[in-house]
């Protein structure tokens, strides 16, 4: 398979799609995802891990809020991986991740994930290429373990944002009062490393055993459609049913 080059993939919806029509379809799919989550929780046969990765302001929080709004909190978890603590640094890089993976019946969302350990660390030269290669192999083995040993369905979404759109989104965090809380001056510094991030995202995408879905996100309504459509189509194929009424 030909390696993915992110610059060759549009960050916008196809010109022929109808926004209003797609938004209606998205609403129906979001409702259906809520139904499937309830079935997943009741049947206790599978678990689901959803990974969102993307540049700052690519809409990870918004995707979580919009796509999973009809899911019940009892069966849903969200976790964002920050800078490792001293205890986490004292272990292998996947130690802190394994503790957060979903139990059967649960959907666990990673808003940023274990891929940070071959992205930001590589961009800033904190690990070398050989270490990144070893970590990539470990990530593939880890995800395969979850998939085959615990019936974990893994969705990996790269939120594909353009350089220009990121600038607009970051500026809105300064200009709009209700978005001020999102402003982080360091996001502008990380933006200076855009080309390096693209190169290492391509590395992660092209070297993953479990494939990624590239989600154009310059128009957020299209992001929501692609994410929920991808999930519903996959979950619909699972063999799940509600347990019988207990006689006890």
Quick recap:
With 248 residues, the protein is an alpha/beta fold.
Structure write-up:
The structure is a single chain. This protein is α/β, with parallel strands linked by helices. It has a single domain (about 15-235), classed as Rossmann fold (3-Layer(aba) Sandwich), CATH 3.40.50.300. It is built from ten helices and five strands. It has helices at about 20-45, 60-65, 85-90, 95-100, 120-125, 130-150, 165-175, 185-190, 195-205, 220-235; strands spanning about 45-55, 75-80, 105-110, 150-160, 215. The protein has a five-stranded parallel beta sheet with strand order 2-3-1-4-5, sandwiched between helices. The radius of gyration is 19 Å and the shape is globular.
Strand order of the largest sheet: 2-3-1-4-5
So, the CATH homologous superfamily?
Answer: P-loop containing nucleotide triphosphate hydrolases
Could you tell me the radius of gyration in angstroms? 19 Å
Low-confidence stretches: none
How far do the termini sit from each other?
54 Å
Residue share in helices?
Answer: 40-55%
- Please tell me the total number of domains: 1
Strand content: 5-15%
Element-level helix/strand string: HEHEHHEHHEHHHEH
Sheet/helix structural class? alpha/beta
CATH topology: Rossmann fold
Mean of the pLDDT scores? 96
The CATH architecture comes to 3-Layer(aba) Sandwich
The count of DSSP E runs of length 2 or more, i.e. the number of strands, is 5
Molecular shape: globular
- Largest sheet composition: 5 strands, parallel
The DSSP helix count reads: 10
CATH class: Alpha Beta
């Amino acid at each position: 398979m030909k390696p993915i080059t992110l610059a060759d993939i549009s960050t916008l919806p196809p010109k022929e799609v109808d926004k209003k029509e797609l938004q209606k379809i998205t609403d129906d799919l979001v409702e259906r995802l809520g139904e499937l989550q309830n079935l997943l929780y009741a049947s206790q046969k599978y678990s689901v891990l959803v990974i969102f990765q993307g540049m700052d302001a690519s809409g990870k929080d918004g995707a979580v809020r919009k796509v999973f709004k009809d899911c019940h909190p009892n069966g849903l978890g969200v976790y964002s991986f920050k800078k490792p603590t001293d205890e986490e640094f004292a272990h292998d890089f996947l130690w802190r991740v394994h503790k957060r993976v979903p139990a059967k019946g649960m959907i666990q969302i990673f808003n940023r994930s274990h891929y940070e350990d071959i992205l930001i660390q590589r961009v800033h030269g904190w690990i070398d290429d050989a270490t990144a290669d070893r970590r990539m192999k470990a990530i593939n083995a880890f995800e395969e373990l979850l998939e085959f040993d615990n019936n974990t369905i893994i969705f990996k979404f790269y939120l594909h944002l353009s350089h220009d759109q990121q600038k607009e989104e970051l500026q809105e965090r300064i200009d709009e009062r209700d978005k001020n809380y999102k402003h982080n001056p360091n996001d502008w510094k990380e933006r200076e490393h855009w080309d390096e991030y693209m190169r290492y995202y391509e590395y992660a995408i092209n070297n993953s055993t479990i494939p990624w879905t590239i989600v154009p996100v310059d128009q957020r309504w299209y992001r929501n459609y692609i994410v929920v459509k991808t999930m519903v189509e996959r979950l619909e194929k699972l063999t799940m049913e509600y347990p019988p009424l207990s006689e006890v």
